[in-house]
Amino acid sequence: MDAVQLADQASVSSFEEMRSFLQQVIQILKRERREGKAGFQKIKGGLVELEPEGEAVVVGDIHGDLKSLTTILKQSQFLSKANKNNKVYLIFLGDYGDR
After folding, report:
1. Which residues have CB under 8 Å from 26's CB, separation 6+?
2. pLDDT tens across 37-56, in order?
3. Which residues are CB-neighbours of 8 under 8 A, at least 6 positions away?
């Protein structure tokens, strides 16, 4: 799925679909914290420890602006790189989904 498809799907999701999705995310985050790992990354005290290799896309405050996120994903080619199992990270700083 590309960035535009993800954005289109997110923009038509119902409240119940979003709530269900967020509950699933919370359960995954709790499990990762409990196990101390997320995929090949280590979790320490709620922080993800990254190996000093690969590529990182750092995103500042987008305040829930889906169009900006779509542009970032498209221009960085993050989804295609991640789908090819490259070590590529999407790091959010600040507010990204508060509106």
Report:
1. none
2. 987 788 887 788 877 888 88
3. none
Q: SS3 for the chain, per residue?
A: CCHHHHHHHHHCCCHHHHHHHHHHHHHHHHHHHHHCEECCEEEECCEEECCCCCEEEEECCCCCCHHHHHHHHHHHCHHHHHHCCCCEEEEECCCCCCC
d(CA 74, CA 70): 6
Q: Amino acid identity, residue 21?
A: F
Measure CA 18 to chain center.
15
* Tokens 């750092």 belong to residue: 58
The whole-angstrom separation of Cα 61 and Cα 38 is: 24
pTM of the model: 0.59
Question: Taking a C-beta distance cutoff of 8 angstroms, is the pair 96, 33 a contact?
Answer: no
